[in-house]
Amino acid sequence: MTFDFKITNGLLYDGDGGAPVHANIGVKDGKIAEIGACAGDAKQVIDADGAIVTPGFIDLHTHYDGQISWDEELKPSVNHGVTTIIMGNCGVGFAPVKKSDHDRLVRLMEGVEDIPGTALHEGLTWDWESFPDYMDAIDAMPHTIDFGVMIGHDPVRVYAMGERASAFEEATDDDIAQMKQIVREAMEAGAAGFSIGRTDIHRTADGEWTPSAEASEKELTALAGALAELDHGVLQIVNDFNLEREGDQFADEFKIVESFVRAGNGKPASISLMQRDMAPNDWTRILKETERLNAEGIDFNVQVAPRAIGVFQGLQCTFHPIMAQPSYIAIKDKPLAERVAIMRDPEFKKKCLAETPVKLAGPGSSVPPIADTMIAAIELVANKFFRLGENPDYEQPQDKSLGAEARADGVSAMEKLYDTLLELDGKQLIYFPIYNYTEFNYDNVHAMLTHPKALPGLSDGGAHVGTICDASFPSYLLSYWCRDRDHGKIPLKRAVQMLTADGADYLGLKDRGRLKVGMRADINIIDHEKLRLGAPRMVKDLPAGGQRLLQPVSGYRATFVNGEQVIANDEVTKARPGRLVRFH
């Protein structure tokens, strides 16, 4: 046999979690044709000496739903070894949609996922109405990597109920029947599953709760039932258990989650798992319920992150500590260089710091109430603010925080934060690990990652572009947890398995996720010893001049999708083999 290409001398991690082996891989017609000696000729030979060879990674939790319609490259996910992404999480998306609701869905995504509305308005092609139409439209453009899409509850509700699709409007029987038919139609067209979002944190750009945030148990179970008779599909859930409201509502909310999952008739389900400071033990309650459901025969999983769920703050970002100061509000729309020059004036600084911050959240504002809470408690919260540095350190002790630095320098936390924001000509980023960092270490993250029902997720690739840069999760898991952390490491073979076979099995994908003969040639060649993340940086490359955070990475010698090379020495190639994955 003459191979299209061979990968030689690599250390293969096949995705099944077994010990790595030195072997060659022969690829023919986009599939793995042989593993072993691969003695046949090849049109190209790639030497993987000193590198590990893995299946392409599967990212279960992204939000490229808008970007997919205009962006062929799908950065930053493609740069981090990801060869298959799943979009449409958290109940949001852009289909189905009536022409009259285009702006409504843009405002929803702008608020929930922090994607610039101007970029969405200019970039979205809107050449669809139904969900199958949307699938056809996004599949018509070539992309670097493969993508599957969930159908989200919010656009379904808006499509069926129009103006009545507010958070507090209960769906009628006719509404529910129409929504169920829409979900069923999407699933039969090849959608990966159905997603819901029940969280007070998610708001539209107008400050409203998402359309489905308070949907009834009756509505949710009916829509999950659209998957009950099918042979494929997963259910994805976001729920913060009403933490910002009075009383402990965990039990009532989890009852709704359980009813929703059971209505899927055995379909795999997953829920976001993280530790929140305001309820630091809820994550253990979720795991306890997870174990109970699995003991009762329900395939219930938790989506976990390999580090804190953190946001970046800066003068270029969506949020920062002085954004509520009246003097800053007066100059916030000026170009960065002008703002920095004004802020460096001692009199302006003195006036700004003496002011009382205004309330940012409320009617007509997409700013979540938690932002006002954080600013009001800035002296305390600054103890969780950190500089990452050029070689980012995400697991730092409290005594390295900017709050500790302020105390050591004898200044207020606000003054220290003000001065820090002006560093690097106003481009300094302050890292704030909101979730998963209550104890200022990753011991609880380790417990989440090593739970038998854990799935790596929550990267939010394509979303929160002005505050978060977590599409680098796969690279971080492989470098920090498998190599750099001085205790509690995760075996490399297990990390690879989590990023590949575990996700494929959860989704029901039988053609990828493992290095096996006959599988798709979705393959990474990684110089594991040299795998490094750089400091995130803000770039303006979205439509209408929109900006987003990207995080440079080095160590990816090659990434292949369906046998075509999309990454060569950390750079995106011209190849565009990525297609829509239709689930059946």
From TrEMBL:
Its name, as the record gives it, is Amidohydrolase family protein
| Record domain Amidohydrolase: where | 44-354, 441-566
**Stretches that traverse the bilayer:** none
Record the organism. Hyphococcus aureus
Return any one Pfam family short name: Amidohydro_3
UniProt cross-references to CDD domains, sorted A to Z = D-aminoacylase
